[in-house]
Amino acid sequence: MAAQVKVMQIIARMNVGGPAVIVAELMRGLDKSQFEQILVTGYCDENEADYLDTVAKDVKATRIAGLGRSVSLIADLKAFFGLVSLIRKYKPDVIHTHTAKAGVLGRLASLLGGRGAVRVHTFHGHLLHGYFSSALTKLVILIEKFLAARTSVLIAIGSKVKEDLLAAGIGRAHKYRVFFPGLPAPKTGSKAAAQSALGISSEVLYCTFVGRLTQIKRPDRLLDVAAECKRRGIDLRFLVAGEGELFESSKQRALKDQLNVTFFGWRSDIDQIFASSDIAILTSDNEGIPLTLIQAAQAGLPIVATNVGSISDIVINESTGYLTATTATEMADAIEKLVRDPQLRQMMGAAGKAHAERYFSLDRMIKDHSDLYRSL
């Protein structure tokens, strides 16, 4: 029998969000008789929920201080040398890095400590738009170009993510693979049961936003959409699941402007929230491929989202939902069409669900990674 392939997964922090979900599913899903895995990660910030503590309690990790989000020369150096010694001790066959900071520290550490290890990096999105000043963005691109030349395989989480990275000159086309994230099918129950469990009325239509309330996700734009819907007399309520640095200010504004918005805070029962809903919405300025929209599609919801990042891999415009410009007016137009036409909601929701089952299944994601690791 062939020896197990030793895979080291490195991610900066397992805060609740897409990359953590994908890494946890890889840790659980790869065949243990063929792969031996170790997960290396840092610590979350105080205002972030840690996915390993809250949801994936079965997934074990080796923690390295300083690998988390904040950038500090001393902490980063400590994390770097911690990674080097861990790589030397574990001697992985494949070093697979996820997210920007872990991608830099992990790949540099593997150059020093990982003789013979194959480097794989996943771009779960990128930092080329909406994060840094233009000078800092140029520096990020230079670092990524240097590392891409020393990485065997670059995985992009969506087609647009890959196109943007290639356009910036990061890596060569032959090194890229597009691996869509895969999620387990949602636990299904009736809409009425889900609404009753959440304590919400079945008389109202619900448009749901799930995500961190942070600048790049533009909760202010979501509230602009809610205000526009109110102005037009569109009868629906917005549900918001998620927290972040704009959580309190968003709640205050909704209260002050008397908007039809319910804030649930951070939740682990997203399946239930989508099962209670009629429409899903995402208002971001930039995205990789948002897993919450895959969950919404799996739940059979039509989606209204800004046409940014690789959202177009999930939402097929005018077939499974609407991709709009980043204006509240255009988003409200799309919502109004869906609110006024139950048949359109049903049709788009069913088309979205079929698309998600085909492209975003957990089995497909596990197979893509297993085949890749074995081939390397």
From TrEMBL:
Q: Which UniProt keywords apply?
A: Glycosyltransferase, Transferase
* Originating species: Candidatus Planktophila lacus
Q: What is this protein called?
A: Glycosyltransferase
Glycosyl transferase family domain: residues covered? 197-354
The molecular function terms of the Gene Ontology recorded here are: glycosyltransferase activity
Where does the Glycosyltransferase subfamily 4-like N-terminal domain start and stop, copy by copy? 17-179
Q: Which InterPro entries match?
A: Glyco_trans_1 (IPR001296), Glyco_trans_4-like_N (IPR028098)
Top-level lineage group:
Bacteria
